[in-house]
Write a structure and sequence with these properties.
The protein contains five helices and five strands. The protein has 142 residues and is an alpha+beta fold. Strands 1-2-3 form a three-stranded mixed beta sheet, with no helix packed on it. Residues 1-12 have low confidence and may be disordered.
């Protein structure tokens, strides 16, 4: 899926999630442990990780903030899998979804980041609230 920069958006063009989504470089399997996720958060200095299931489909999203209760290494974080934790789960955004609709859904759900998936549920990227709002406010009105 090709993403477009704000400069490539034509006046009057209806923006979609594909116009605003960013790639997501960091993913983790739902069978990985909380400790492994925390190691990635610390090592890569990132705020979120996309979670994929055993078939490679998007299962959800975990955040650094959501893992604050698990910061201390313990037997619990060493044995608890990501799938057993409370984290953002579907439904997810689609690349063809209207960006304005996605922004409303994100605001309603209080989401800063929303996974974008294809028709089979595989991860294509992420939509951030800041990027969506930025593009919508910068888009010329027809």
């Amino acid at each position: 899926m090709t993403t477009h920069s704000p400069q490539s958006v034509r006046p009057g063009h209806d923006l979609t999630v594909a116009d605003a989504m960013d790639p997501c470089d960091y993913q983790i399997a739902d069978s990985n442990t909380v400790e492994q996720a925390n190691d990635i958060f610390r090592g890569a200095d990132i705020e979120y990780l996309l979670v994929r299931d055993h078939d490679g489909r998007c299962e959800g999203l975990v955040t650094r903030t959501g893992h604050l209760p698990f910061r201390a290494r313990s037997w619990y974080t060493e044995r608890t899998t990501i799938s057993a934790t409370s984290h953002q789960r579907g439904p997810f955004a689609w690349p063809t979804m209207a960006l304005a609709l996605a922004a409303i859904a994100m605001r309603t759900k209080h989401l800063a980041v929303w996974p974008v998936v294809d028709e089979d549920g595989h991860i294509l990227g992420v939509l951030t609230a800041d990027r969506a709002v930025g593009l919508l406010t910068a888009a010329p009105t027809p």
